[in-house]
Design goal:
The complex is a heterodimer of chains A (206) and B (426).
Chain A: H1 9-20, H2 29-35, H3 38-47, H4 53-62, H5 68-73, H6 75-86, H7 91-100, H8 103-106, H9 119-137, H10 152-159, E1 171-172, H11 177-194
Chain B: H1 2-6, H2 16-21, H3 23-40, H4 48-61, H5 65-81, H6 84-103, H7 109-119, H8 127-139, H9 144-154, H10 168-179, H11 191-203, E1 205-209, E2 212-216, H12 220-236, H13 243-248, H14 250-256, H15 260-274, H16 279-282, H17 289-300, H18 305-320, H19 327-346, H20 350-362, H21 368-381, E3 382-383, H22 388-399, H23 408-411, H24 413-425
């Protein structure tokens, strides 16, 4: 990567707006992380508020994509940057700053700075209410994708339900053709296994 | 946009970019999208209306990195704070969202681990574990050194939260390593670690009592043994080989398929096997044994239905698109797929299957006789009471004059009974 000029104040703002301002670059934390240097983060202390809001967001989302050794070494300027974000006039910048507040220190998302009147808290209440409404109207029976490979007892330990209840759309008059196929295959299997030359089972199953 | 939003018409705001600019409006649009998925959950994953609602949620929440982070933070926190069905539903939304953005090439492992850490006790997630996971998931490739780090931490008395390795994307990679036919073999020194981690992710129940995380490892060894046996069996039976041996070992395979992780692994092996270009040339029999195994997986594991269904519909579409087979042979093969779909319908996946058949009829993707075959096979096995959702999607097929002529009543008592039931209920 070409060495970055030592940019100050307005020049840095201009440079970052150019680099990270593209409207269609919506997932650019990783790209932004590649641009960051200690020099830039430190300089932002004085000119962060001059960036456009979406460029501020991209700078903040660069933090989790930094290598651990940069996070450790640049802790102070990163924390300063996050403090500025947490006081920003833009709700988005403020909320992302709140959530990333402890990232450099602990690698964690933090909910500690979210206050009850925030959009985050209000949405939390709203979503909880929605889930309860749906649970009351019809039985909520969504299990996560990971449950598809997990045993019943693990699902039960997590969610207090053993298995996804299958909604009945009809009764079965009789079983489909697949049932005959299954029986045929098992009987063929028994025939094959009973032939003396086949008696030695596969090593993997022994 | 703010005025439309204030008036309560969130669903009218179709431009996410505009909505995403203001947190307040975005939050309302997000709530509306979540509400949409929860409203459609009754019909279930893989139905048209559910998939549409989920796609909308992905469009809204996955719009950009900060909207994604905000949405996932909410969903994770709710999954953690809520209990039972609500917790399961939020976990479902959060994971589905993660899988969807991964399909678009975005890796969000750092965020999942940061959120897991936020909800776990202090010190539960050690930096080496986080680094091992992030490094593998970022490249979407496993390596023995990072797997060894995970293995060491998960064999300790105080292991990290099981959710770390219960990540569906990670498990997919481990399954691929253990079940892909003709895959690169894992070195014998490392294979036990892969097996252990997969067995741990799928069988160790974790509960929190008085703030203490506890693990129950009762099923760990039996799960690991079953995975070990079936992984060996699968990796040694690649492509067209070994149908005879599979048949011989069928009772043991059926037994092992009761383990969800084994079923998911074998499903991966079946997918790799049957989608090989020459598979059906090598298996001219009317029902190749791999397809028969799909029935068993569907019977035992409702949660694997979407994956089995996806494979079958892909095979069906591929054959229709002209994959060498012609005329009668093609029809016979498609009937075999339809038999598998009817089996899925019989074990609880009725709506997606019927919607699929209605769609290929509507789009003229299949010979009418195949649609008639599906409807006949279905009528033969179902009887009242019928759900309204099922009637809504199946009745138009039975009533359609192109599929059944007007004398269907006399020819088929089951059709008569179905139509009578529908008209008396109306």
């Amino acid at each position: 990567m070409a060495e970055r000029p030592s940019l100050r104040d307005r020049d840095l703002v201009q440079w970052l707006d150019n680099k990270l301002g593209a409207a269609d670059e919506l997932w650019s934390g990783r790209t932004a992380a590649g641009l960051l240097t200690l020099d830039i983060i430190s300089e932002l202390d004085s000119c962060f508020q001059d960036l456009q809001s979406h460029v501020k967001l991209r700078m903040l989302l660069a933090i989790p994509h930094l290598p651990q050794k940069s996070l450790d070494a640049w802790r102070e300027p990163i924390d300063n940057l996050l403090s500025l974000a947490m006081q920003d006039a833009d709700d988005w910048v403020q909320t992302v700053g709140d959530l990333l507040k402890e990232y450099a220190q602990d690698g964690t998302v933090s909910f500690a700075s979210i206050d009850d009147a925030s959009h985050f808290s209000r949405t939390l209440v709203e979503l909880r209410k929605l889930a309860r409404q749906h649970a009351n109207q019809t039985e909520l029976r969504l299990l996560p994708p990971d449950a598809s490979f997990c045993s019943k007892s693990t699902i039960n330990a997590r969610f207090g339900v053993g298995q996804q209840t299958v909604q009945k759309h009809f009764a079965l008059r009789r079983r489909p053709k697949s049932a005959t196929l299954r029986a045929d295959l098992l009987s063929k299997s028994a025939d094959v296994a009973s032939q003396p030359k086949n008696r030695v089972p596969h090593a993997a199953l022994a | 946009v703010k005025l439309i939003s204030d008036a309560g018409f969130q669903h009218e705001i179709s431009n996410v970019t505009t909505a995403a600019q203001q947190l307040e409006i975005f939050s309302r649009v997000l709530s509306t999208a979540v509400d949409g998925v929860l409203a459609q959950h009754r019909k279930g994953p893989a139905t048209d209306s559910y998939d549409r609602a989920l796609t909308e949620l992905v469009r809204v929440a996955g719009h950009s990195e900060h909207t994604y982070m905000y949405s996932q933070a909410l969903l994770h926190l709710l999954a953690h704070q809520e209990q039972h069905e609500s917790s399961a539903a939020f976990t479902h939304l959060s994971q589905s969202l993660r899988l969807a953005v991964r399909d678009k090439g975005q890796d969000s492992t750092w965020l999942d681990l940061a959120l897991l850490r936020a909800c776990a006790e202090d010190g539960a997630l050690k930096p080496p574990v986080v680094q091992a996971m992030c490094s593998m998931m970022n490249k979407m490739s496993l390596n023995p050194a990072d797997m060894t780090v995970l293995y060491q931490h998960f064999t300790q008395n105080k292991p990290p939260p099981v959710a770390v390795i219960r990540d569906p994307l990670f498990v997919e990679l481990v399954m691929d390593a253990l079940f892909r036919p003709k895959g690169v073999k894992i070195h014998a020194d490392h294979r036990p670690k892969y097996l252990y981690l997969l067995a741990y992710a799928s069988s160790v129940a974790e509960t929190v009592r008085n703030g203490q995380r506890m693990q129950s490892r009762e099923e760990l060894d039996t799960t690991k043994d079953a995975l070990d046996r079936m992984s060996q069996l699968c990796q040694e039976r690649s492509g067209g080989e070994g149908s005879h041996e599979i048949l011989m070992e069928l009772p043991q395979i059926f037994h092992a398929l009761k383990f969800p992780s084994v079923a998911a692994g074998m499903l991966h092996w079946i997918r790799c096997t049957v989608t090989e270009a020459d598979y059906f040339k090598l298996h001219p029999e009317s029902v190749p044994i791999h397809l028969a195994l799909l029935d068993e997986i569907a019977t035992n594991h409702p949660l694997l239905h979407p994956k089995v269904f996806k494979l079958l519909t892909e095979l069906f579409d591929r054959e229709t698109a002209g994959d060498g087979a012609v005329g009668e042979l093609l029809m016979e093969r498609q009937k075999t797929f339809i038999d598998r779909l009817v089996h899925m319908l019989s074990v609880g996946f009725a709506l997606p299957v019927t919607e699929f058949m209605a769609r290929i009829f509507r789009d003229g993707q299949a010979d009418i006789s195949l649609i008639r075959y599906f409807a006949t096979e279905t009528l033969e096995i179902v009887c009242p009471p019928f759900s309204q959702d099922f009637v809504d999607v199946f009745l138009p097929l039975v009533e359609n004059k192109e599929i059944f002529d007007e004398n269907v009543h006399e020819k088929m008592p089951a059709a008569k009974e179905f139509l009578e039931q529908c008209s008396s209920a109306a």
